[in-house]
Write a sequence for this structure.
C-alpha cells in the first residue's frame, strides 16, 4: 500500500451560516478518518448525519469551516486533486438529450481525453457496466438502474484511482443492486479505492474493508469491519458434527472427547453491521 | 479496463489550467441542451411573424413602409434575444444543481471558471445562431420588399406620367437608404451585444440567488434601469437634487447597472441613418469591458459558492 492515503479527513468541521434569522447549522463536527489506497471504505449513518457534507468536502464542492480534506495528499479544494477521483452522486441525472455513449464522451472530454483513447475507453466502460445495447439510446429513457450504471461509467471514464459513490444502489431493484455490488468488488480487485455510502447495510458488510459510522455530524465508530462487529465480552466455539449431548457437556468434554469432534475455531462471535449501526446511532448525542 | 495501481504515487500536483477545449465541450453541451427546450419552433414562429410584418402592412409610401418594417422587426428581435438570454441563463445553473449534473462536472478536473465560461458561451452561441438566421430572413424580406416597393413606385410614376429620370433616381435613393444595407446587420450586432451583456448579468445573479424567479425579475429590473442610465447620471451630477442617501443609492445603482442605451441603434437604423464604424467599435468595446467585469465578479462569487 502507498504511504499516502487515498483520502484523509482531518478534524473536518462544517458550519452552514444561517440566513434570514435562522441560526447557523453545524453539519459535521471534528470528523477525522483516512481511506487507504486499494480498500473499500463504507461511510454509513442515518439521514442528516453529515455523510453527504463530508463527501462534498472531500470532493472540494464545499469549503470546510475547520480542518482539511485531501485526496492522495492533495488538498481537495485544488482542482488537481480531482484528476484521480470519480464521483457518482445519489440519484444522478445526465443531460437527457445525450445518449449513453455521448454522455461518456462528454465527461471524458472534460477530463482532457480525446480521439481513439476516449472512444475505446467509453466502449470499455459501456461493456463493464453492461450498457452496450443501450449506448445509442437517449439517457432520458434510461431506467434508474441504468442511470446508476451510467453514473459509474462516467465516474470511471478517466481511470481514477479513487471512486466516491454516494448511495450507489438507492432506488435500484435487487438485481441492479447486486450488479453494482459486484462492480464494487471488481473495482477493489483492480486496486481502485472506493469510498461508498449506503443504507443497505447487508451489502456494505459484504463489500467494505473498513467502515465509519456517523451520527449527529460526528464519527461515532470507525475501523476494520471484522473488528467492529466482533463482540468483545463473548467467546464463540464452533464445532463440526457436534451432538446435542456434547453441547450440554461442552465445557468439560471438549478436550477429552476426541474422535470425530474437533474444535475448529475459538474467538469472538460476530454481530451484524446493522445491529452495530442501530446501537451506535442511538447513543445519546454528545454536547 | 486498465488496472489502477494501489501503490501508485499521488497524482501529479500540476495545477489544472484553463482549457479552451473543455470550455467548448461545455458550451456545445449547453447549446444543445437549450435547443432541446423547443427553441427552434419559437424561432420559426418569429421568422413567420417577421414575414407577416414585411408583407402584411398596407402601403403608405416606400420610405415609411421600409422604416416601419425595420422598427417593428428589430424591436421584436431585441425583446426576443433579451428574454431568451435572461430566462435561459437563469434556468441553467439551478437546473444543473437540481439534477446534480453540476456535481458530476465539478468533481472532474474542471475549474469553475471553465464551467461558467462554457455555460455563458453556450447561451451566447445559441442567441448568435438565432440572430444570424433571423438576420438572413430579415435581409431577404427587406430586399424583396424594397424591390417590390421600387417597382410599384416607378409604375405609379409611369401611370401618372411623372417617371422622369430624376424622379426615378430619387425613389431609388430613398428605397436604397431605407432598404437592405450594412446598417441592418449593425443593428442586429448591437442587439446581440446588448443580449450578451444582459445574459452575463443574469449569470452573475444566478450565482448569487437560489431562486430562478428572483434572477429573472432582478435581471429584468436591471435591464430596464440600464436603459435609463443617462437619466441616473444626470441625477447624480445635479448638485442640489435628492438627499445624500438617495444620491449614494443612485450612484451604486449606476455602478451596478450597465448603460444599455449605448446599444440603442435600432431607431437610427430604422430612420435610414448610417451607423459609423467608430460607433460599432465603441459599442463592441463597451460590451466587452462590461462583460469582462461582470464575468470576473461572477467567477469570484461562484468560486466561493458552496454546492
Amino acid at each position: 500500500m502507498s504511504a499516502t492515503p487515498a483520502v484523509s479527513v482531518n478534524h473536518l468541521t462544517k458550519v452552514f451560516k444561517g440566513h434570514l434569522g435562522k441560526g447557523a447549522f453545524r453539519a459535521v463536527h471534528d470528523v477525522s478518518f483516512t481511506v487507504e489506497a486499494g480498500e473499500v471504505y463504507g461511510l454509513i449513518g442515518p439521514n442528516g448525519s453529515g455523510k453527504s457534507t463530508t463527501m462534498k468536502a472531500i470532493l472540494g464542492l464545499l469549503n470546510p469551516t475547520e480542518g482539511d480534506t485531501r485526496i492522495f495528499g492533495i488538498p481537495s479544494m485544488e482542482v488537481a486533486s480531482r484528476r484521480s477521483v470519480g464521483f457518482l452522486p445519489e440519484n444522478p441525472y445526465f443531460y437527457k438529450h445525450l445518449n449513453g455513449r455521448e454522455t461518456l464522451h462528454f465527461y471524458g472530454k472534460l477530463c482532457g481525453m480525446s480521439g481513439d483513447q476516449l472512444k475505446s475507453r467509453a466502449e470499455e466502460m459501456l461493456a463493464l457496466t453492461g450498457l452496450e445495447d443501450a449506448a445509442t439510446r437517449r439517457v432520458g429513457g434510461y431506467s434508474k438502474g441504468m442511470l446508476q450504471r451510467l453514473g459509474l461509467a462516467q465516474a470511471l471514464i478517466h481511470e481514477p484511482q479513487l471512486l466516491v459513490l454516494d448511495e450507489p444502489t438507492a432506488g435500484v431493484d435487487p438485481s441492479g443492486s447486486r450488479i453494482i455490488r459486484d462492480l464494487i468488488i471488481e473495482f477493489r480487485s483492480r486496486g481502485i479505492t472506493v469510498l461508498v455510502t449506503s443504507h443497505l447495510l447487508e451489502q456494505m458488510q459484504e463489500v467494505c474493508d473498513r467502515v465509519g459510522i456517523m451520527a449527529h455530524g460526528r464519527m461515532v465508530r470507525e475501523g476494520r469491519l471484522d473488528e467492529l462487529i466482533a463482540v468483545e465480552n463473548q467467546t464463540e466455539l464452533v464445532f463440526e458434527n457436534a451432538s446435542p449431548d456434547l453441547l450440554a457437556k461442552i465445557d468439560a468434554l471438549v478436550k477429552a472427547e476426541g474422535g470425530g469432534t474437533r474444535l475448529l475455531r475459538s474467538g469472538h462471535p460476530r454481530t451484524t453491521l446493522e445491529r452495530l449501526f442501530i446501537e451506535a446511532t442511538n447513543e445519546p448525542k454528545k454536547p | 479496463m486498465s488496472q489502477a495501481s494501489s501503490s501508485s504515487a499521488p497524482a501529479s500536483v500540476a495545477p489544472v489550467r484553463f482549457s479552451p477545449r473543455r470550455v467548448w465541450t461545455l458550451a456545445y453541451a449547453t447549446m444543445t441542451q437549450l435547443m432541446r427546450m423547443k427553441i427552434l419552433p419559437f424561432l420559426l414562429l418569429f421568422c413567420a411573424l417577421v414575414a407577416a410584418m414585411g408583407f402584411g402592412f398596407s402601403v403608405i409610401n416606400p420610405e415609411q413602409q421600409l422604416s416601419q418594417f425595420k422598427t417593428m422587426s428589430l424591436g421584436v428581435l431585441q425583446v426576443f434575444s433579451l428574454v431568451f438570454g435572461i430566462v435561459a441563463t437563469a434556468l441553467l445553473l439551478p437546473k444543473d444543481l437540481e439534477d446534480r449534473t453540476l456535481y458530476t462536472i465539478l468533481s472532474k478536473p474542471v475549474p469553475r471558471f471553465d464551467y461558467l465560461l462554457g455555460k455563458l458561451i453556450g447561451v451566447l452561441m445559441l442567441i448568435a445562431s438565432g440572430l444570424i438566421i433571423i438576420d438572413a430572413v430579415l435581409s431577404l424580406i427587406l430586399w424583396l420588399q424594397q424591390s417590390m416597393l421600387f417597382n410599384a413606385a416607378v409604375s405609379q410614376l409611369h401611370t401618372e406620367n411623372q417617371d422622369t429620370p430624376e424622379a426615378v433616381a430619387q425613389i431609388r435613393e430613398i428605397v436604397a437608404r431605407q432598404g437592405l444595407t450594412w446598417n441592418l446587420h449593425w443593428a442586429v450586432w448591437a442587439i446581440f451585444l446588448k443580449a450578451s451583456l444582459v445574459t452575463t448579468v443574469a449569470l452573475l445573479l444566478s450565482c448569487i440567488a437560489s431562486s430562478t424567479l428572483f434572477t429573472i425579475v432582478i435581471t429584468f429590473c436591471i435591464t430596464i434601469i440600464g436603459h435609463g442610465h443617462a437619466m441616473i447620471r444626470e441625477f447624480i451630477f445635479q448638485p442640489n437634487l435628492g438627499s445624500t442617501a438617495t444620491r449614494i443609492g443612485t450612484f451604486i445603482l449606476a455602478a451596478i447597472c450597465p448603460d444599455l442605451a449605448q446599444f440603442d441603434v435600432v431607431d437610427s437604423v430604422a430612420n435610414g441613418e448610417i451607423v459609423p464604424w467608430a460607433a460599432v467599435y465603441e459599442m463592441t468595446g463597451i460590451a466587452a469591458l462590461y462583460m469582462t467585469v461582470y464575468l470576473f465578479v461572477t467567477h469570484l462569487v461562484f468560486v466561493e459558492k458552496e454546492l
User: Anything to note?
Assistant: Chain A has a mean pLDDT of 84.
